[in-house]
Amino acid sequence: MSLQVNYHIHTIDSPFWSFALHDGHLIDGDLLPYLLLSEKQRLREEDPYTALIAELPVNQFVVGTSRFQLDLNRPVEQSVYLHPEQAWGLEVWKTNFPQTLIDQLYKKHQYIYRLIEQHIQSSIQKYGFFVVLDIHSYNANRESPTAVVDEDANPQINLGTHYNDPKWRVLTDSFIHAIASQTLYGLPIDIRENVRFKGGYLTQFLNTRFGDKGCVFSIEFRKDFMNEWTGEPEVKRIAACKQLLINSVQSLKEYFAYEG
């Protein structure tokens, strides 16, 4: 059997990329006999609707396979959740999960990262630089569906920039200003850096290889645009998140036009 990892790449004439690595919910049928989790359990920790937010006027890389099959924002040796501590205390796979299938998934991870590397190299060759918007969402209400979110500890947008080269500090400040100068759901935007998340494997991988040529903004939206317990979306809020980033991409264009 050959396991499938679903992903979609859409390229346009642009040095900018949007990624939605955790939007997916699909599990390969050959893996289902070994899976312990229900769809509801998986959805709780996935990032549904981030693919919609990532539909920006830039290059796009969207993954349709669930992170519970293969987490492409973790190093290859951690990309299959074999231990509860890798998966919020959840037992994901039965004990008879074959090593041959695990090895197949690891190879898929390596192949996809070679593909990502090639695409970013192409952007650098054509434009001299790149910027990735790595779009995620996060749960801020883990106690109960009725608990009040601690907004001091959970910014509306957590911007992961920890692994970026310091040379991109001015670009980062410009991008943050472009977001903070707008509103979201009719309210001022609380965007902070590296409070809950610093950036995952994608940003570490790209910064290690190309950090002097571009950077990754890991954008974690608090799941205010959905019910994080049921997965029910608020369509207008999803559209608002997308529009926020569409507007902010313009600041990236202006920065590099000025630099050029």
Automatic annotation (TrEMBL):
Keywords: Hydrolase. Pfam families: FGase (PF05013). One of its GO terms (molecular function) is hydrolase activity. InterPro entries: N-FG_amidohydro. It comes from the Bacteria. This is N-formylglutamate amidohydrolase.
